[in-house]
Amino acid sequence: MKKVILGVLAVGLTVGAALQPLNAQDKKVDLSLNLGAMTDAGSCGTFSDVLFTFSPQIDVRIARNFMISAEAMVITDDGFRLNPWLLYPGVTLSYTTGKVSIGGGAVLPMAFWSDWAEIGDLVPKIAVDYRAGHLKFTTYILVDTQPLFSCNLIGITLGYVF
Predict the structure, then answer these.
(1) pTM higher than 0.85 for the full model?
(2) CATH number for the domain running over 2-161
(3) How far apart are CA 77 and CA 131, in angstroms?
(4) Which of 98, 126, 144, 160 has the fewest Cβ atoms surrounding its Cβ within 10 A?
């Protein structure tokens, strides 16, 4: 449990520390709140179950066509039960062209039960975003690495950018 708390604090402090100098340099920083759904894709059962997601996300432009996005995806089942409580914090580096961005990064799966917690291995993430005004539509795949591309999660989200 100490590792989980330290991991979450480290991510939060890193994101917070990164935002302060970037705001001073007039870099564009966006906050979005995203709702979505994900399902299995691969040999473990394609479209066998639907999970719902909520993910606050911070997008920081680091150059004209590049952006770093930090997010914390909360996942629940179709009954909106949070037992276990699943949290997938992650970071993505994206190449942006106008309204479309394509990127890759990693998420760290975490599961919290009432009396214990578990942290998984880093999972690669590939995402494609389309932005129209304050709305953002994202498709993504979380790639299984044991063995490669066998039990993936694919998802879509719709978000509001502030």
Answers:
(1) no
(2) 2.40.160
(3) 27
(4) 98
Number of Cβ within a 10 Å radius of residue 125? 22
Nearest to 155 by CA among 8, 15, 37, 33: 37
Tell me how far the alpha carbon of residue 27 is from its chain's centroid. Answer: 22
Query: Under 8 Å CB-to-CB from 30, ≥6 apart: which residues?
Result: 58, 59, 161, 162
- Give me the residue label for tokens 């089942």: 77
Pair of tokens at residue 42:
């691969």
Taking alpha carbons only, the member of 9, 3, 11 closest to residue 106 is: 11
Length of the chain: 162
Q: Could you tell me the residue ranges of all domains in the chain?
A: 2-161
CA distance 89 to 54: 11
Tens of pLDDT, residue by residue, the chain (162 residues): 455 555 555 555 555 555 555 544 556 899 999 999 999 887 676 667 888 999 999 999 999 899 999 999 999 877 777 778 899 999 999 999 989 999 999 999 999 888 889 998 899 999 999 999 999 999 999 988 777 666 789 999 999 999
